[in-house]
Design goal:
Layout: E1 3-7, H1 14-20, H2 23-31, E2 36-40, E3 57-61, H3 68-73, E4 76-80, H4 83-91, E5 96-100, H5 108-118, E6 123-126, H6 130-136, H7 150-161
Parallel strand pairs: 1-2, 1-4, 2-3, 4-5, 5-6
Helix pairs in contact: 2-6
């Protein structure tokens, strides 16, 4: 069963939860063959009932010790634009759609989402453009994210600074 995992991280992002479960978004996902939504709603006040989206199977939870298994099982990940959530999703090697909370004052999330999109690692949108993005995005153009290699940088610094390894 094709699954979409939606995460808001440790925060609340009720607008994302409301928008992804609206009929337009659900229809757009169904048109792409998705049949199950797994929602991690965090501290939000919007907690959809399992039967609130009759077109798809809906599973909802607030928090888990780890969402790695949910990401691994997903065919598509829709995430808020928090750096930790984005990097965990990219590390899972799944297509990623980042939804920026444009209601935040200092919107550093937009910068991260835009750069990941420029590098072809994800698509991004806001809640107001989510349904259209779900209809039009072409997941085949996304490129895998290759995480940095901190050991190479550490070794470079050791050599540059003349540090001897014991």
């Amino acid at each position: 069963m094709k699954t979409v995992f939606i995460t808001v991280g440790t925060t609340s992002f009720d607008e994302l939860i409301t928008t992804i479960t609206c009929s337009g978004s659900v229809q757009a996902l169904k048109a792409r063959g998705y049949e199950r939504l797994v929602l991690q709603v965090g501290r939000g006040s919007v907690v959809p009932a399992a039967d609130s989206c009759p077109q798809v199977k809906l599973d909802v939870f607030r928090f888990k010790d780890s969402i790695a298994e949910d990401m691994k099982q997903a065919d598509l990940i829709i995430s808020h634009a928090g750096a930790g959530s984005c990097l965990e999703a990219l590390g899972a090697g799944k297509p990623l759609l980042v939804v920026v909370n444009d209601k935040l004052m200092d919107n550093h999330q937009l910068e991260l989402a835009r750069q990941l999109h420029i590098d072809s690692h994800c698509f991004y949108c806001t809640c107001s453009t989510l349904t259209d993005t779900l209809r039009t995005m072409d997941l085949s153009v996304l490129q895998p994210y290759v995480p940095g290699q901190p050991n190479n940088f550490a070794n470079f610094l050791d050599r540059a600074l003349g540090v001897q390894k014991l």
